[in-house]
């Protein structure tokens, strides 16, 4: 089975906590196996993501502080490197080829200006669109196209919480908690 990791480049701990956390949340919920925060350690982002995994299930790995260039170079012996950039080839023109390779993927997502070496090291520079856009949105669209929407039906192992879809309101059940299941079955909100 193909493994997909997301490498977050250029994370600035004092400025990017929320966006990097959202990159991690999208990576997890849209089918990636983990996030790699390159070149820095930010325990607050790691704690937030690990808490989500603890409550909502996994597996999902959080790796920090690796040398981004070296990590990409090493990954190339394992699989494909996809750099998401508005300057790349349109996703619709390359997604079948990427998916068809059957190789593990490292999806590179930048925060600030991405150094030229990542454009050169990438096997694919992929654009979701050729206009300025959010890296969070680009990652979501890429993973959704890669998995053809199947990732949205994924069940996460080890989850303590699960959402019960409702037309209005919110219903969250604790898995394994009989009282919550019974309240949920009766239409009450369980937390």
UniProtKB/TrEMBL annotation:
Keyword tags: Cytoplasm, Methyltransferase, S-adenosyl-L-methionine, Transferase, tRNA processing
Signal peptide: none
EC number: 2.1.1.206
Reaction catalyzed: cytidine(56) in tRNA + S-adenosyl-L-methionine = 2'-O-methylcytidine(56) in tRNA + S-adenosyl-L-homocysteine + H(+)
Domain of life assignment: Archaea
InterPro entries per the UniProt record, alphabetical: Alpha/beta_knot_MTases, tRNA_m1G_MTases_N, tRNA_mtfrase_aTrm56
Coiled-coil segments on the chain, per record: none
Entry annotated with the keyword tRNA processing: yes
A Pfam match: Trm56
Entry GO CC: cytoplasm
Function: Specifically catalyzes the AdoMet-dependent 2'-O-ribose methylation of cytidine at position 56 in tRNAs.
Family membership noted in the UniProt record: Belongs to the aTrm56 family.
Protein name according to UniProt: tRNA (cytidine(56)-2'-O)-methyltransferase
Source organism: Thermogladius calderae (strain DSM 22663 / VKM B-2946 / 1633)
Lineage of the species this protein comes from: Archaea, Thermoproteota, Thermoprotei, Desulfurococcales, Desulfurococcaceae
């Amino acid at each position: 089975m193909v493994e997909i990791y997301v490498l977050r480049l250029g994370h600035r701990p004092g400025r990017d906590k929320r966006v990097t956390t959202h990159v991690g949340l999208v990576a997890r919920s849209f089918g990636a196996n983990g996030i790699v925060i390159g070149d820095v350690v930010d325990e607050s982002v790691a704690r937030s993501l690990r808490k989500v995994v603890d409550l909502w299930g996994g597996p999902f790995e959080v790796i920090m502080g690796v040398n981004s260039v070296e990590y990409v170079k090493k990954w190339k012996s394992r699989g494909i490197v996809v750099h998401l950039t508005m300057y790349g080839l349109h996703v619709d023109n390359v997604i079948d080829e990427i998916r068809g390779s059957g190789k593990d993927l490292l999806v590179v997502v930048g925060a600030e200006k991405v150094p030229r070496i990542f454009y050169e090291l990438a096997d694919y520079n992929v654009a979701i669109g050729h206009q300025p856009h959010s890296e969070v949105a680009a990652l979501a669209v890429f993973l959704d196209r890669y998995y053809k929407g199947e990732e949205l039906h994924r069940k996460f192992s080890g989850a303590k919480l699960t959402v019960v879809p409702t037309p209005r309101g919110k219903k969250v059940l604790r898995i394994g908690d009989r009282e919550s299941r019974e309240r949920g079955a009766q239409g009450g909100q369980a937390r």
